[in-house]
Amino acid sequence: MNPLPPYQYGAARTMVYLHGQYLQAFLVEWQQAQAAGIVLPETDDPNYVSLETLLHHVLGAARSYMVWMCNKLALPDPAINPPPPLEVIEDEAAGYLAHLIDRWQLPLAEVGEDQFDRPEYLSNWGTLYCVEAMLEHAVMHAILHRVQLEELLAEQRPD
Known about the structure:
Blueprint: H1 10-36, H2 51-72, H3 89-104, H4 114-117, E1 121-122, E2 128-129, H5 131-156
Helix pairs in contact: 1-2, 1-3, 1-5, 2-3, 2-5
């Protein structure tokens, strides 16, 4: 059951809840991948150099999505700390994730439905998004990377 307080726009409340749930599921999968010694495929993407950089990417992106939405909606800064440095991210990930989920809970609660789908704004990577689409993107980002790790675990540790 969704423990969040009521929101003006119920779909936003649900997506904020799902975002937290899927981030937690990602972290569990990441921890399993780390324990199994999973190796990420070779790529030019600096976010995939190691499992630690992937974790930093997912947590940092989650922070950036809410900062971006608050900025576009002229809301106060959500006061989400940056993710821990790579050297300590494994040890500090669970605590940081709790902070991240907590700081995600309230910024969008008083935003009306009409502000979620218009206008569109330029994302940090150059794609146009309305706020609702960015919120959906945030939810899917955690799912995408969890599934990637599930597949790598199945390939590299089939037993």
